């Protein structure tokens, strides 16, 4: 039942051959350029941040947190950061991404020494394909559920909602100023900038999946339903779809398990982990240090106490640390597999 669209599929297309496969060549080189630019900026950002923060911590220039004695009226209090549903959504999204990475790179780097073993553990190609689609559905549900939630929230608060306000994830000019100030701090040319509810790097973490969802999601659906795709599109879109799907997935996986892990867990102020996304709250003293502008704003508005909660229970803290540790090691294991597969493909 193949349609005429399949006729133009290039089963042996070479993305390095511009003369015979120009579209594949342009798609491949465009994705490589995207990967190179993103990693060049953020790995440089990560390295400079690490060395500057480590140097200041070692010299005692910047204490990790403020002295809790400065806040006697709120001793032992925590600040609520994430409600329960967002913590669940983060966990489901993380598990979905890890499942997608595991099943996807095993196919993408099938020639790697570890791929046959992993594929066997997954139950073979058919089982791996089913698991990959389960991961895709999980991520799609989380992604669109969060969009629906925000649409309803904005609709209810339309008159008072500030799209460029401190509670918004929409980038603004202050983010550009913070990036410039951050790089000045990296090189000792200025103080470390203070942040409000969302820092510029967190906004990037938020918006990047929109691009990734479009590229990976659309190309993945095209490959998932080839008959439908080929009924109204030419077959060469499968060649392009395969390239951008794999390259964008590589970008997402490596970024998450290097840059995102560093921002959240591995920088000197956070090492070895930050469990706020699992407990939903952080110590008030830490909050005052990490989010100085937000702390000042809430105090001036007289709304700080609305966000104060008791410390998470000992079991909650213990299990959150355990869960965080497990996910960190899974992510690092997947990163090792991705990089090993990439290098084996590069030098094969």
Walk me through this protein's architecture:
The chain has a 3-stranded antiparallel beta sheet. Helix 2 (84-108) runs antiparallel to helix 4 and helix 10 crosses helix 11 (292-301). The two termini are 37 Å apart. It has helices at residues 22-59, 84-108, 115-121, 125-156, 173-186, 200-224, 226-232, 236-266, 276-279, 284-290, 292-301, 314-346, and strands spanning 78-80, 281-283, 308-309. It has 348 residues and is mostly helical.
**Backbone structural class:** mainly alpha
Mean pLDDT: 90
Distance between the termini: 37 Å
Number of strands: 3
H/E series:
HEHHHHHHHHEHHEH
Principal-axes geometry comes out as globular
Give helix % range. 55-70%
Largest sheet: 3 strands, antiparallel
Specify the number of helices. 12
How much of the residues is beta strand, in percent? under 5%
User: Largest sheet, order of strands side by side?
Assistant: 2-1-3
* Rg from Cα: 23 Å
The parts where pLDDT drops under 50 for at least 5 residues are 64-69
Question: What is this entry, summarized?
Answer:
Helix content is 67%, strand content 2%. The protein is mostly helical.
